[in-house]
Structures are given as C-alpha cells and as structure tokens.
Design goal:
The structure is a homodimer of 399-residue chains. Chain A has 399 residues and is of the alpha/beta class. Chain A has 15 helices and 16 strands. The longest helix of chain A is centred in the first third of the chain and has 17 residues. The interface between A and B is medium-sized, with 32 and 33 residues.
Chain lengths: 399, 399
C-alpha cells in the first residue's frame, strides 16, 4: 500500500465522541497504507512525512467515509409496480396478501443464482461507493430458508472479497415468516439451524420486531440464540407500530435499534442507558409517504444516532448517504453537523467498529473529498453530486 | 442536422392535452433534424424511415425532455452560510435585515463580471441538462438596477447561444426593492426604464407578489407596463403568505402563477378559469423546512400544473428535474404520471410553448432516454441517476 498525503484540504471535518464535529482549516492527512498516520494543519506537517504521493484537494472539504449501518443490499427483482400500486391507494397489507411485499423479493431471491445476485448487488454497491460509502452493513432475510439465507451470505462474502470497502454481515433470518410455514416452526428453523450454521460467517443477528413482524418475546428468543453463537445484536424496532422492540433491544444490550418510528420517550431513555445506537432510516418514510422519524427528538434524548439508507426494493430504494444526510437535515430537524456525525461516527458506533468515523491517527484511511468547501452543501444542494474523491482503506477510488 | 432513429424503446411515455400520459411499447421515434418526424410501434415504422443513424435504447424508457419553467439560474456567490443560520433557528426576516437574503445575492451579482456570471451559470446549466432538462426559463432579478438587470440578460443570451437546449428569458426586476431606494421610486425605474429597455430581449415579465415582496396593486401596474411592451406575464404568487397574487395573476391572464403555498380553493378556481398554469416549486419547501404546497389539491382542482426547480442560491438550490418529480410524488401526493406530466407538458404550457412536452410529429426533438424501463423509477429510486441519454433539438448530448 502506498503511503499518501492528502493536501490542500480547505476544511477537514471530524466527528468527536462528544457528539460534535471538529474542523481544521488548511489541513493535511498522511496515510500509511490502510491507516491514517497523521492529521493536522499544513504548517505543522512533520518534515519526514512530506515526501509522499500526493492528492491535492485544492481547497475542498474532507469528511470521514460514510458508514451505512443498515442495508438489505442483496436482493433480486424490484418492486416498482408495487410502489405504484401503493401510491394509487392500495395498502401495504393488501399488497402483501396478494403475494407482494417482502415475499415477492423472497421468491425472486430464491430463484436467482448466486452470480445473478452478485451482479445485481455489486451494481448497487458501486453506486453506494461512488457516493462516499466506505463501510456497509448487509443483511440476509430474503431467503427465509437455510439454503437461501446461506446463499445470501455467499453473495455478501463475494461482494466483500471484490470491493475496496468494508462489508459487515448481518443474519436477518427472522425477517418474515415464509409462505406455507407456521411462525413457530420457522422460528425453530432459525434458532436450530440458520443461526448455528451461519453465525461463524456473520457479525450480527437482526430481527424484525414489529406488529407485522415478530413479537418482542419471539425476537428475544432468537437474539438469545444469536448471542449464544457469538453474534452481536440488532433490532428492526417499532417501525409500523410499537411492539416493544426498542425496549427489548435495550434490555438485550443490542448494538442498535433501527427505524423507531413509534418509539416513545421512555424507549429512547432505555436505549440511552443501554448504550444502544438508534439507526434512523428516512428513506423508508419518504418512500412510504409517512411522517419522518423524530431525528431531533432522538438526538436531544442523548441516544447516539446513526443515519442509514435502508437500501431495499420495497420501502427504501436509496443508495447514497449524502441524500440520507440531506433528509436528516431537511426532514428530520438535524443540523448539518449532527447529520454528518450520524452518517459517519454514528454508523461506526452502530456497527461497533472503533476504528472509523473519525479522522485521526490509527483510524482506517476511509475519507471522502467533497466537491465543495463545506459539508453543509450536502443538504443545501440536496440533488447535487458532491463527491470528488473517495479513499477506502487508503485506496483512492477515482481517477 | 442528422436524421436519426431512436429504436429499441421499451416504453415511450407521452403526456396528452387531457392531462394523462400515453404509452407505446416497443416504440421507435424518427427525428428529422430538430423536429420529431414519426412516432409509433416498431412494427409500423415506414420503410422509407428505416435507413438512418440509429440510437438503440435497448429496452429503456423514453420521456419528453424536461421543461424547467421557473429558475433563477444566473447569480453569483452562494448562501450556504445563511442556510446554516436558518437551520439554527434564525428567521429569514432577521437574516434579510442583516444584509442576507436576496440582497446578498444582488450584491454578489452586481459585483461579478459578465464572464464570471456566464461561467458560474453555465456549470449549473450543464448539470441541469445532464439530468434531462431541454428547456429552461431563466429570470433576472438579482440586479435591481438597469445596468445589472441588463447584464443578467446579456448572460442569459450568452448561455442561450452556447447551449443546445432552449432558453426562455424572464425579466423579474420587481423581485425586491434595492437598498437605499423607496419602493415607489424603484417601481418607477422598473416601469419607466428596465422593462422598456429589456422587453425586446425577453419573453416574459415576472413579479414577486407576496407579503414580503410587492402588493397585488403594485404588481398589476408593473404587469400592465410589461403587457404594453409585448411581454407575457408570470407571477410569484402567495409564497410566504396570501397577497392576492394568484387572484391577480388570473385576472391579468398571466401564463403562470408560481409557488402558491398560500393559495385558496377560490384562487385555484380563478386560475383554472383563466387558463393560468400553476407552477409548484417543492425545492423551496424542502430547503426552508416548510410544508409542501398542495400538489394533489392543485391537480384535482383542474388547474394545469407544472413542477420546476426554482434553482436559486437562497431557498432552493436544486438543478435536476428528476428530483423535482420525485418530490412531487413523494411529498406532494402526485402520481408518477401526474408528476411526469407536470415536469414536461406542464412546463411547456407554463411557458406557452406549443411545440414541446409531448412526443409527436412536428414537435421539437427533445427527448430523455431513462436508464430504466419505466418512469416510475424517478420517484421509486429518488437518489438514483436515471439519465442514459438526452436529445435536445435533435442532438444527442451524451457519448
């Protein structure tokens, strides 16, 4: 790996543990292979670091690579027709009853070959990376049987092997109950076979704790099994209604509770005490024409906040974190700095990755050079293309 | 101009006068220089049109080029700092009182040379065109004196001469009262000098009829003068409060009434009877964190509806019509077809241009090939890059 310098940084923005964003003007970052070696003002750059291959940012702003902590990136087919029908007034429930919803994607994903899934997913991953994502979590959950859940992990591993960005695998077998099976017998399969078989190849287990998904008690059993197999815990919590998901996530010490559209102040307080990160997903609200989750309330509650794309073919076909940041600011009441924090360090906290999300020595060399001099442009110009360069694990990916 | 064929069109979508969108599958479009010569199903293509230079769309969808009927594209400086301050809780009024708001852009635009303005504006225009805009209206209004309003028209003419897309010029001298002048003496200048001097170089006159702008009576006088000088009429109507702008626009037979955030049902009925087009600007609501104007109510009232970017540095720094379409669907309650209609034929109606916005023989050869097989993707995937090819006046602009 080449040792590199990023010079001419007009403003370098780095999130802090205190939930603020520091900035340095006229900054330089020195990279030693895949890690950041030195960060500071140009005038303080040690002499021995000066003679390196240089990327001149020409006054542009630098932020950490985005951490997209909640995606369903691997799937086959799309659900544009279902989206149109929902806009026309059909309910999610009636569409699901007619074979749409998650089950439509399950059918398509089961029918697709591993190579087809890799091709479709890597096109999406490329667009994510092009928009500055350098760490992406990817969930299973469109298999709902051992063979397809396992195929999805194969695909995630193939993507991870071929991409310069870091991929985190989550087993979401408890996403829905498959057609023709009882909830109980499916949960038995999840706990008895899927989790034991896949635990060694994943970092996290997730569950869909929701009035239209599984109950808090069912989810607790699944997560107990996952814990026993060494997996970290995540929870789709209280999206379409309150099902005790946030409360349960906090009680289980989950890494994150995601969605939270129907979480109460008491739920947020429980998450804060537990150190569970709230992952908010504005793309789902936008796509479903629903009220946005209360980003302002979550931030003010003291809970650590992450923003993510929720990339999926049913309810949030987003790929780009800058757009998620813009929604955080324009639709959820966050300040630009808070939204940037949530899209970088917040995501890293949600994935329990201590080596990214800030720009400091020893951290992964994951950086985005914006094509502007301030990150506020991400929401000031919400349809702009703001990415000038992406550096992932020390590798510049453009030009 | 080369005679061309667009072949392999999976679905061709063309708005109709009845406010619907027709579609043809497996379609072909024949272009004869700058105009459309023939449109239909591949199997019906006349033999004599077959031997032409061909663009194979490979199953993609084709829609008319977007018509962006309301922009303030020509300006210097930006107002990102003001945007941040407003997010932090400062009001537009207090920022304006401290020299921000429109006046900040007026100062920067007065200070910029013609060439600087051309360079900054043509970068924005290029991004618009890259996203499928083939007709763009551009307003003056950051001069507020004869010399600078005239310089803005120079810039618009320079942009028009250098771009393959069609540019429509609007004089918006009555945008605000300049510092150090009384309203009355400024309006005297507008009516006595600015409009008479610039009328021959513009198609329309616009006024800012709003509680924070000019009264309906003041605007009526300005528009009477504009009419006498042969200009068509447009009105910024009732954005921050109801000032009788829509009513006045209807009474004057204006081509369009724009914004309409505070228009009543009676206002809409007046616009409908007058045949005045409603131009809605969701970017301003998004950027100002205000409720979106009622696109559904406007559509259902029977008023013809256009959607536009409102591209400006203060309240809506948008450049791309696909994003405006997505906001129309996801935030204003329009269907994908209605939003497409509003962004194409609706824009053409607002600009009183009868030769575009539909894909039919004799129309301008302004077409967008989407990188997908259905226009619903514009809102289904609101952060996607959906443009595969843009044809403006018969010229393919990519590749």
């Amino acid at each position: 790996m080449t040792a590199r310098l990023l010079t001419g940084i007009g403003r370098l923005f780095s999130p802090t543990a205190a939930r603020t964003v520091d900035h340095v003007e006229d900054a330089v970052v020195a990279l030693d292979g895949t890690r950041i070696e030195w960060v500071g003002s140009r005038t303080d750059l040690p002499r021995e670091l000066r003679d390196r291959e240089t990327i001149d940012c020409e006054g542009r702003a630098v932020v950490p690579g985005f951490v997209d902590a909640h995606t369903h990136l691997v799937f086959a087919g799309d659900r544009a027709t279902e989206f149109s029908r929902r806009l026309g007034g059909e309910t999610y429930e009636s569409i699901a009853a007619a074979g749409g919803g998650i089950r439509a994607t399950v059918d398509a994903t089961r029918a697709a070959s591993r190579d087809e899934l890799v091709a479709a997913s890597s096109a999406r991953l490329d667009r994510m990376i092009g928009a500055g994502t350098t760490t992406v979590e990817i969930k299973t959950g469109y298999g709902l049987d051992l063979a397809t859940e396992s195929k999805m992990v194969d695909v995630i591993e193939a993507l991870a092997a071929a991409t310069p960005v870091d991929v985190v695998t989550t087993v979401l077998a408890a996403h829905a109950t498959p057609e023709g099976t009882s909830r109980d017998s499916y949960l038995e399969l999840v706990m008895g076979e899927v989790i034991p078989m896949l635990a060694g190849r994943a970092a996290f287990c997730d569950v869909f704790c929701d009035p239209v998904g599984f109950s808090a008690d069912e989810c607790r059993m699944v997560l107990d099994t996952a814990s026993a197999h060494g997996l970290g815990l995540r929870v789709h919590a209280d999206q379409t209604g309150r099902a005790g998901g946030a409360e349960m996530a906090a009680a289980m010490g989950a890494a994150s509770a995601d969605h939270l559209d129907h979480a109460t102040a008491a739920d947020l307080e429980a998450l804060r005490r537990a150190g569970t990160v709230a992952v908010l997903l504005p793309g789902a609200s936008l796509t479903m024409r629903l009220p946005f989750p209360g980003g302002r309330a979550v931030w003010d509650s003291g809970v650590e906040l992450a923003l993510a794309t929720d990339c999926n073919p049913g309810t949030s076909y987003l790929e780009t974190m800058p757009f998620v940041v813009a929604l955080g600011v324009l639709e959820m009441g966050l300040s630009p700095s808070e939204a940037l924090w949530a899209a970088t360090l917040g995501g890293a906290r949600a994935l329990q990755l201590a080596d990214r999300g800030v720009i400091a020595p020893g951290m992964r060399a994951d950086l985005v050079v914006l094509d502007t001099d301030h990150h506020v442009d991400l929401s000031y110009r919400p349809d702009g293309d703001h990415i000038w360069q992406v550096v992932a694990g020390g590798r510049p990916l453009r030009g």
